Amino acid sequence: MSATYDFIVVGSGSAGSVLANRLSASGQYKVLCLEAGTEGSNYFWSRVPIGMAKLIDNPAVNWVYSSEPDAGSGGRRIPVPRGKMLGGSSSINGMVFVRGQPQDYDHWAQLGNRGWSYQDVLPIFRKMESYSGGDDEFRGRSGPLRVNDTPTDISPLHRRMIQSAEKIGIPFTKDYNGGDQEGIGITQVTINKGRRQSTAYCYLDPARGRSNLTIESGAMAESLVLEGKRCVGVRYSVNGQRREARATREVIVSTGSINSPKLLELSGIGQSDFLREKGITPIHELRGVGENLRDHYSPRVRFAITEKGATFNDNGRGWRLWMEGVKYALTGQGFFAMTAAPIRMYFKTREGLESPDAAIAMTPFLYELDKDGHLAVSKQRGVTLNINVLRSESIGSIHIKSADPFEPPAINFNFMSSEYDRQGTVAAIRKARALFATPPLADAVGEELAPGAHVQTDEDLVQWICNYAETTYHPVGTCKMGADPMAVVDDQLRVHGLQGLRVADASIMPTLTSGNTNAPSIMIGEKCAEMVLAAAASAGRAAA
User: Fold this and answer.
1) What is the mean pLDDT of the chain?
2) Sequential DSSP letters for 20-46
3) pLDDT, tens only, 169-181
4) Which residue has the higher pLDDT, 496 or 371?
5) Which of 26, 214, 513, 536 keeps 20 to 30 A from 111, CA to CA?
6) pLDDT, tens digit, for every residue of 300-355?
7) Do domains 1-105+196-295+395-414+476-544 and 151-186+297-389+416-468 have the same CATH topology?
8) DSSP tally for the chain: helices H, then strands E
9) Domain 151-186+297-389+416-468: which topology?
């Protein structure tokens, strides 16, 4: 027996929750949303912003993937956390809201993706957000997603950082999500009144009461159901029980850059020879499935800070941490209401660039692993800088290891394989050093803890990056959009050569956006919903 719906959305993440809401909003269509995780927006550590530290390696709400070792990671397996709960990674991430640069989307359009230029997607960004700052030309005021500025007093280092940045030629920006990203600015966040604004909370929860929307959690998608060249449903399991759901109109896969190519391959969609090797009967040849993986690779540069009270290494431990908890409970502010990096800087690493090519995001404390292997605030006072090039050119892949849907896929990032990435990341580290050596910030800075002042040559810096850098949790591109032979979906997000099947999540991005990928993923969900509803309306008119 199988239940039948108009639309099936596989995944309730940053894009999937949006789709579930928008497709069911009119009441006209019957919608099923499948989610492998079981927790929702009321999960305590997801509600509390600083709770991200409790989610980063928690298998109850996280797929806790890891990459395959390679030269770019110094032979290490790098942790790759991905949300496994309603809201997906928007429920466990650092809550940073960055659209990227207009040039990112114009480049997508130049690659042949009609309808994806900056002017095309700007109205969707405006539609989805509610933000009080910036210019009306660029910012939305009444969308479901509440976006706010981090309080400027979260760290006394912010003013010093801004002043020092201006001295080295980097201006202060009030809105890096406006027309120009360049500059140093306070981080915009999906936090409102001390609560995380995940897509589960902003999109899925308001839609829960609709009789035409079914949300099934604990549902592990195992394969798509294909009849010829048409997708007609999904096979999945709940607590070991096999189930099947059918879609009369479309199935939209929205399980993210890691699980979307995995599900396609498990369904016989991908590179035929490879699928045969894994014991899967090929049904539809698509060479690009699982290819084109990109991510932001970020060394964590650390500086000691001499000014007492300037970092949360003073207030984020012991009895002071309890006081911060009381402050949060009473006011919704302070350490517990903080994003991962409250201030960020977008800049050019060399002369002649049209737009920024690198970023520095500052976390106002040092952290380490405790005796149980969990993240904890260090005793030493300092700051941590996440540094990366914005549009990485190192390309990897994600592919299944076997026909077992419960086995994690092989994630091969191939980090630092591009000379562009090597040169750009080294230049960005040197920019960070220049910033922290410039007064008034320099007046509060002590020793460079990592990589250390002794690491100076380009070669040594590259080696240090390979040995110690981490992903910034922004994988994209594994079901990329386009018309070339390696594209998986077209500009309507329809899987090439198949009917009734779309992919809508970060996996469809042809290239990385210039910053965190949660905001673009939500935009993709919104845009896909518009396209799906337009196609359904057109089909209805044709039938009439």
Assistant:
1) 96
2) HHHHHTTSSS-EEEEES----TT-HHH
3) 999 999 999 999 9
4) 496
5) 536
6) 999 999 999 889 888 777 888 888 888 999 999 988 999 989 999 999 999 999 99
7) no
8) 15, 29
9) Cholesterol Oxidase; domain 2 (3.30.410)
Q: Was domain 1-105+196-295+395-414+476-544 assigned CATH 3.50.50.60?
A: yes
5 close to 246: Cβ distance less than 8 angstroms: yes
State how far the Cα of 496 lies from the Cα of 498, in Å rounded to an integer.
Answer: 6
Residue 464 phi, psi (nearest 5): -65, -40
Contacts of 103 (CB under 8 A, 6+ apart): 118, 354, 355, 514
Compute the residue count for the chain: 544
B/e letters for 450-476, b = 16+ CB within 10 Å, e = fewer, are bbeeeeeeeeebbebbbeebbbbbbbb
For 427-438, the pLDDT digits (tens) are: 999 999 999 999
Token pair listed for 325: 């908890």
Q: Element (H or E) spanning 495, and its range?
A: none
Residues 411-428, mean pLDDT to the nearest whole number = 98
Alpha helix (H) residue ranges in 345-485: 419-436, 458-468
Over range 495-512, report the average pLDDT: 98
Burial category of 185 from C-beta neighbours within 10 Å (exposed 0-12, middle 13-18, buried 19 and up): buried
Residues labelled as active-site residues:
474
Question: How high is the pLDDT of residue 1?
Answer: 56
Domain ranges of the chain: 1-105+196-295+395-414+476-544, 151-186+297-389+416-468
Q: What secondary structure, in 3-state letters, does 370-391 show?
A: CCCCCEEECCCCEEEEEEEECC
Q: How confident is the model at residue 123 (pLDDT cuts 50, 70, 90)?
A: very high
Side-chain-side CA neighbours of 529 within 13 Å: the count stands at 26
β-strand 445-450 against 382-389: which pairing, if any? Answer: unpaired
> What crossing angle do the helices spanning 518-543 and 118-128 adopt, rounded to 10°?
100
> How does pLDDT run across 8-61, given as a tens digit for each residue?
999 999 999 999 999 999 999 999 999 999 999 999 999 999 999 999 999 999
**If we measure between CA atoms, which residue out of 38, 163, 209 comes closest to residue 436?**
163
- The pTM score is 0.97
